[in-house]
Amino acid sequence: MFRKIALAIIMCIVVSTIATSCEYREKKLTIKDKAIPKETGESYNKKYEAYATLDTFITGNLQESLDYYFSKFGDTEEFKVDKNDNLYNGILLEFNKKELEEGFSYYSTEPHFEKVDNALKELHPAFKELIQALSDADTYYKLKSYVDDDFVKGKELHKKIYSKYIKVKPLNKKFSSDFGDFFREDSKKKLEEFKKNDFMIKYYALSSLLKAKDLESELQRQKVTKNNMASLDVSKYKEKYNLLVADMNKFLEYSKDSNRIKKEKIDPAFPYKIMDVKAAATDILTKAQGNNSYKNSGYSRNGEGTTEYLSNKIKEAILEYVKMK
To answer: Residue 84 in 3-state DSSP?
Structure first.
């Protein structure tokens, strides 16, 4: 049933997006001054998007690559390796260097995001060194150079990656935390604006994201990670989870209105991201209540039913929301 509702919503959005796009082109030709955004607003949104992109990468792709690397070569300074492992796959590092550098360049530009700018500026030098070390390791293993030197360079790279990661880890956490605080403050203003303009799809989408952030905070307060899911206080989690469900139901209800979709210019990808957040929150509840279907062996990329997976889905949805603004 949920899937059918989702498909119906997406069909409405696609049709409405095409209509809105045509209408927008007509207006742009006749009312040019209204088609051009104010420079201040455009700069704010670009910087916001760049920071959301960085935050998503740091706790998403980068952390996944680090988790994979440490599962292969040890999570201490001591280098460990299984020579029969599939090392030629590299370390699953995927990133756009130009996009990353562009994101970091914003900490010295206006408008200033205060604490977030300072956190990113402090992170930048160590982050660049870690990325370079990981890139060198990725190339080293993909070229199978470990066969030529019997892991001599691999051991050197491991020491470098481990030391850089120890330095970067708290700085990553600080940037992500400060950006999360910034998102909350900005969202409070946006909720008022959405309600005033009767943008109820965006209102309940953003409200759902804030409720999901509250769930994330509850998990952090309880110090629950993928390694100790059984310690979750389900009753406290469910209190906040029910608030998310209530907002999600409102979001789905308003999203059935094609006129609202057109009016609010909802991107077709956005509802999927919001629904992914709710599904990730449900997976945690299901797992905590005794469903063992999410158990896996060996390395896994922060799979369903974990706090890390929920955090990543929240960040992905925030990024999509920021892009749509």
So the answer is: coil
Alpha carbon distances (Å) from 184 to 112, 178, 225: 16, 10, 23
CB 216 within 8 A of CB 311: yes
41-75 CB burial, b ≥16 within 10 A, e <16: eeebeebbbbbbbbbbbbbbbbbbbbbbbbebbee
Cβ atoms of residues 216 and 310 within 8 Å: yes
pLDDT at 39: 38
pLDDT at 27: 38
With a cut of 70, list the residues of the chain below it in pLDDT. 1-40, 291-302
The answer to whether 275 touches 6, Cβ cutoff 8 Å, is yes
**Is residue 308 within 8 Å of 48, Cβ to Cβ?**
no
CA dihedral over 57, 60, 66, 68, signed as positive or negative: negative
56/36 Cα distance (integer angstroms): 29
307 burial via Cβ count (<10 Å: 0-12, 13-18, 19+): buried
Query: What token pair was written down for 150?
Result: 């019997």
3 state DSSP class of 6: helix
Residue range 18-75, pLDDT digits in tens? 444 444 443 333 323 333 334 348 899 999 999 999 999 999 999 999 999 999 999 9
- Is the Cα torsion angle 183, 302, 247, 218 positive or negative in sign? negative
Going by C-alpha positions, the residue among 277, 274, 325 that lies closest to residue 10 is: 274
Residue 321: which of 175, 177, 199 has the closest Cα? 199
Output b/e per residue, 193-215; b: 16+ Cβ within 10 A: ebeeeebbbbbbbbbbbbbbbbb
Query: Comparing C-alpha atoms, which of 192, 212, 264 is closest to residue 9?
Result: 264
Which token pair is 32? 């040019």
Q: How far is residue 109 CA from its own chain's centroid?
A: 23
pTM assigned to the model:
0.82
